[in-house]
Amino acid sequence: MENIWVEEVFKDVIGLRFRVKEILFQGQSPFQKVLVVDTYGHGKALLNDGMLMVTERDEFVYHDMIVHPAMMTHPNPKKILVIGGGDGGTVREVLKYKSVEKVVMVEIDEMVTQACKDHIPQTSSKLGDPKVELRFEDGVKYVADTKEKFDVVIVDSSDPIGPATPLFNKDFYQGVYNVLEDDGIVVSQCESPYYEIEMQKTIARIKSELFSIVRMANYTNLSYPGGMWSFSFASKKCDPLKDFNKERYKELDGDFEYYNDQIHFGAFQIPNFQLKQISEYLSPWPNQ
Ligand code: SAM
């Protein structure tokens, strides 16, 4: 039996290896090298420029945690903007809410989405839904130019290298602020607290300069380096710790595999080493 492994080398300090059954797709787009493999332990996996994006084994955790804390907090999320998210997992989760009327997904790289449609239906199966508008363009330019307004913006970006770099700066978040309704929420993929604390600090600071509520949520991610990963939350009004609406479970089309109300509150409790670096930018804990 062949012994092929694919390895993500993260920040030149750690490598994560997955044993490969079969290479399903590889291509070079104008933006990155796109690879889809079938693995022995994690099912099908997408890697962009050698960086692991999703695996079938644990994508449900990432997609639950990037979507549901915000969607269960907003009073009536109807229009959703997803920046990046080309594998489709975020769109799949957003569509579970019956209140949702329209989802715009702005992915810079059509090759990523096509490769996932062809090989990873587990994440991409809802991208053809009539509520979904797919746009293949730069998310930074889209938020700067669009006249549309959204209730929730989800920045499901890759790591801050290559085309994703501007998704981690203030001009982009000013654009996100402008496209959000008055009760709007933004959630962003915010990397590892162990390896990217400076970047987390930057995102928390930028959001604190624009939004009234800023929080950080952690969760464990089986296939990302360091295990613990973060999502940064910001909003104009709604606080996930005060405005969580349990009744919304009744309106769902589908169920959650990872997220529940206890995880919702637990995720926003972050460890001291991370708190020491970013607490000055986070909203105070209720009743403190
Ligand atoms: N779960 C993943 C992770 O954290 O590693 C993210 C998944 S998703 C596939 C990230 C997507 O963001 C990539 O497909 C990439 O092409 C897209 N992307 C990067 N920069 C972008 C930009 N400026 N505008 C829109 N999409 C972008």
Describe this structure in words.
The chain has 288 residues and is of the alpha/beta class. It has 2 domains: 4-55, Spermidine Synthase, Chain: A, domain 2; 59-281, 3-Layer(aba) Sandwich (Rossmann fold), CATH 3.40.50.150. It has 9 helices and 12 strands. Strands 8-7-6-9-10-12-11 form a 7-stranded mixed sheet, with helices on both faces. Helix 6 packs across helix 7 (197-210). The radius of gyration is 18 Å and the shape is globular. 45% of the residues are buried. The mean pLDDT is 95. The protein binds S-adenosylmethionine (SAM). S-adenosylmethionine (SAM) binds next to strand 5, strand 6 and helix 5.
- CATH homology group of the largest domain: Vaccinia Virus protein VP39
Q: Please state how the strands of the largest beta sheet are arranged side by side.
A: 8-7-6-9-10-12-11
Bound molecules: S-adenosylmethionine
Range of helix content: 25-40%
Using the CA coordinates, give the radius of gyration. Answer: 18 Å
- Strand tally is 12
Q: Which regions have little confidence, pLDDT < 50, spanning 5+ residues?
A: none
The domain count comes to: 2
Q: Let me know the largest β-sheet.
A: 7 strands, mixed
Distance between the termini: 59 Å
Series of H and E elements: EEEEEHEHEHHEHEHEHEEHH
> How much of the residues is beta strand, in percent?
25-35%
CATH class of the largest domain: Alpha Beta
Q: Briefly note the structural class of the backbone.
A: alpha/beta
The number of distinct helices, counting runs of at least 4 residues, comes to: 9
